[in-house]
Structure formats: structure tokens, C-alpha cells
């Protein structure tokens, strides 16, 4: 693991992450930026005094926004391989949405329907606190190149991980902070999966 990777691993370990993965070839092939922007980036989505369930609603909305983004990109692409790739990325986000929803049901109401839960959603950003246009403008990927698509996805997950780490420092309610850190761990796992996906390209 290189110097920057060791620093990142130490940072994550210091925030309660018990196991940090190096995304091997995938991360070595990653040409995009890591988390960018000011420390306030995305923080407007969280007040800091939310309950654990309120945080889950916001987190779900960010996952949903990113899933929709990937679906929209799949519809715009003329390349079958890129379409399939965006489909895989959307499926990853869908799985995380399912996990967030089930966590909400565990904490709030096991009988709540998906539609009732989604009616609570008001956020309009993607994971990491930025909009679709902001991400496309920032990373300017060639959406016909699968490696650039995955690189952009990794950058977005890095933004999300960074945002949740900053939110965890702000949250005052212990149960909410535990949920924030759980979601952050999932973002770390997303980066692992994307690194593995990059290795296949």
C-alpha cells in the first residue's frame, strides 16, 4: 500500500473502521480526483441534530439520486458495453437503497411501505452532496469509455465517504452517529466493488 493509501487507511481506522481495503489494480488505474471541494460541501443537507431515522431518509435520497443518474446515463449512451456498465452501477445503488430502507424499518416502523418512506424524501442532490450537472462538469468524463465511467463512479463514492465522515463529526445524537458511520462503511465497500469492477475492464 502506497504512502497516500496508508494515510487514508490510518484516517479511516481512526474513525472506527475496523477493516480498510486497498482496491489494488482498480485504485491504481483510478485517474480521477479524490474528494474535492470545501469542508462545507454537502453539509447543507444535514443539520447535525437529526435522529437516526431522519438521517436514513436523507441518505436514501442521495442513493436514489445517484441510481437515477446512472439509469439516465445508460439511456443516453449508444454503446452497449457502457449501457451495461451503467446498469451495474445502478444495481449497486439499488442494493444500498434496500439496505438503508431496511435499516429504517428496523429503527422506526417495520410495517412502513416503500412508497410511504419515499414520500418523506426532499433532497435533490446525489451522493456526496453535489448535483448531476456539478459532477459531470467537475470530472468531465468521456462517457463512451468504461474506465472513465467507473473512475467517475469511484470519485462520487469518495465524495460520499468524505461527506459522511464530516457529518459524523457534526452529529450530536449517538444513535444517529452510529448510523452515519454504518453508511460510511458501506461507501467504503462500494469503492472496493468499483475497484474490482475496474480490474475487469
What's the CATH first level? Mainly Alpha
Count of folded domains: 1
Order of helices and strands: HHHHHHHH
CATH topology: Ferritin
Shape: globular
Q: Provide the gyration radius in Å.
A: 16 Å
Instruction: Report low-confidence residues grouped into runs of 5 or more.
Output: 1-36
Q: Would you report the number of β strands?
A: 0
Largest sheet: none
Average pLDDT, to the nearest integer?
76
Describe the 3D structure:
It is a single chain. The chain has 201 residues and is mainly alpha-helical. It has a single domain (3-199), classed as Up-down Bundle (Ferritin), CATH 1.20.1260. It is 67% helix and 0% strand. It contains 8 helices and no strands. Helix 3 runs antiparallel to helix 4 and helix 3 packs parallel to helix 8. The longest helix has 28 residues, at 80-107. It is globular, with a radius of gyration of 16 Å. The two termini are 22 Å apart. Mean pLDDT is 76; it is low at 1-36.
Keywords:
201 residues; mainly alpha; Ferritin; 67% helix; globular; disordered N terminus
Note the topology.
Layout: H1 3-14, H2 24-28, H3 52-76, H4 80-107, H5 114-118, H6 132-139, H7 146-170, H8 174-199
Task: Explain briefly what this protein structure is.
Helix content is 67%, strand content 0%. The two termini are 22 Å apart. It has a single domain, classed as Ferritin (Up-down Bundle).
Amino acid at each position: 500500500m502506497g504512502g497516500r493509501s496508508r494515510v487514508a487507511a490510518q484516517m479511516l481506522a481512526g474513525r472506527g473502521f475496523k477493516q480498510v481495503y486497498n482496491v489494488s489494480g482498480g485504485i491504481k488505474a483510478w485517474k480521477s480526483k479524490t474528494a474535492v471541494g470545501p469542508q462545507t460541501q454537502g453539509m447543507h443537507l444535514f443539520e447535525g441534530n437529526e435522529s437516526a431515522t431522519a438521517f436514513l431518509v436523507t441518505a436514501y435520497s442521495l442513493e436514489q439520486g445517484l441510481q437515477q443518474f446512472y439509469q439516465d446515463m445508460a439511456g443516453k449512451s449508444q454503446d452497449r458495453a457502457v449501457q451495461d456498465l451503467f446498469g451495474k452501477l445502478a444495481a449497486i445503488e439499488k442494493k444500498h437503497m434496500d439496505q438503508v430502507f431496511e435499516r429504517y424499518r428496523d429503527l422506526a416502523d417495520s410495517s412502513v411501505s416503500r412508497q410511504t418512506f419515499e414520500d418523506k424524501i426532499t433532497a435533490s442532490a446525489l451522493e456526496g452532496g453535489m448535483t448531476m450537472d456539478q459532477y459531470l462538469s467537475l470530472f468531465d468524463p468521456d462517457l463512451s469509455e468504461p474506465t472513465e465511467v467507473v473512475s467517475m463512479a469511484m470519485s462520487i463514492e469518495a465524495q460520499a465517504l468524505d461527506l459522511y465522515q464530516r457529518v459524523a463529526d457534526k452529529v450530536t445524537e449517538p444513535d444517529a452517529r452510529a448510523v452515519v458511520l454504518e453508511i460510511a462503511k458501506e461507501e467504503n465497500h462500494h469503492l472496493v466493488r468499483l475497484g474490482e469492477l475496474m480490474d475487469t475492464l
